């Protein structure tokens, strides 16, 4: 092996080591920044009897504006427990309600928070006391059809 080949080989090894070190330092710095952000985030939980259409990553809104997202969804004692994470602490009264809403008729679902009028505010880690479950379109249509059938049956019985 000539001196030029050895020098090129050495430069290649040093370059690869520098790139690996740079990659590792970037990954560690990014991980520390995420851990620091996680400590500063505001977290609440809400439990629903029925949470159809809500998944990890679903938006959380107040007055129609996105302020956070669902970061965890688990089943606890037969109820869907959602963990809501906000990028900044949000002053929400203790009597705030969490309602599962739909964007339009067939749109995606999200959690809308409706602040109450209490003087005390929810602390990070608290549970939202009032929730309203997801409305299922099929159930709503079935209810309308059954009411229409019962009205039709009762009106045909009166005319005889």
Q: Brief overview, please?
A:
This protein is an alpha/beta fold. It contains two helices and seven strands.
Structure description:
The protein has helices at residues 3-40, 137-158, and strands at 42-48, 59-62, 65-76, 79-86, 97-102, 109-114, 130-132. It is of the alpha/beta class and 160 residues long. It has two domains: 1-40; 41-140, no CATH class. The protein has a seven-stranded mixed sheet with strand order 1-4-3-2-6-5-7, with no helix packed on it. The longest helix has 38 residues, at 3-40. It starts with a helix and ends with a helix. The model has no long low-confidence stretch (mean pLDDT 86).
Strand order of the largest sheet: 1-4-3-2-6-5-7
Q: Over all CA atoms, what is the radius of gyration? A: 27 Å
Count of domains: 2
Strand content: 25-35%
What integer is the average pLDDT?
Answer: 86
- Work out the helix count: 2
Order of helices and strands: HEEEEEEEH
| Straight-line distance between termini | 110 Å
Shape: elongated
Q: Quick one: biggest sheet? A: 7 strands, mixed
Give the beta-strand count: 7
The secondary-structure class comes to alpha/beta
Kindly state the percentage of residues in helix. 25-40%
Would you identify the regions where 5 or more consecutive residues have pLDDT less than 50?
A: none
